[in-house]
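From the methods appendix. Each design record in this collection lists the tokenized structure first, followed by the designed amino acid sequence. Records were kept in a plain field format so they could be parsed without special tools. The example shown here is representative of the layout used throughout.

RECORD:
FOLD TOKENS (136 positions):
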């Protein structure tokens, strides 16, 4: 089973922060990343968070990448649509710099997806899927 530890999460957040280029200069885009352990497989920045998620889903399909051992990071809110897209990509751990909606949380809990939200620096909130998270 795919898991993530507190220290891995902190390192991932640091790696992503150092990579987001359009966001740093404009601040007006969303970033999404497909990650495996401490490496970025894809990083897409777009004005729409759904565009960025869909671009990663398409790349995964075209490259034959399985999501079951990956993490997904987004700067956007974790709405029901975002959670459903992650579940469809079979990615078990969803991380967001932003918050999670009630419906997003409910769906994630039903499909047993791990949600880590408000993840910035050394702060985060673990909402669902505690079995995949370790505090080191």
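DESIGN:
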């Amino acid at each position: 089973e795919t898991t993530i530890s507190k220290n891995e999460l902190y390192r991932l957040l640091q790696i992503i922060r150092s990579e987001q280029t359009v966001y740093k200069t404009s601040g007006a885009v969303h970033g999404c990343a497909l990650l495996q352990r401490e490496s970025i497989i894809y990083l897409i920045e777009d004005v729409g968070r759904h565009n960025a998620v869909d671009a990663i889903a398409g790349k995964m399909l075209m490259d034959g990448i399985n999501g079951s051992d990956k993490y997904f990071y987004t700067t956007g809110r974790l709405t029901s649509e975002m959670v459903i897209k992650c579940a469809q990509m079979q990615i078990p751990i969803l991380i967001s710099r932003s918050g999670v909606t009630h419906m997003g949380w409910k769906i994630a809990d039903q499909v047993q997806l791990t949600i880590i939200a408000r993840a910035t620096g050394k702060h985060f909130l673990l909402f669902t899927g505690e079995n995949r998270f370790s505090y080191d």
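APPENDIX NOTE: The chain has five helices and eight strands.
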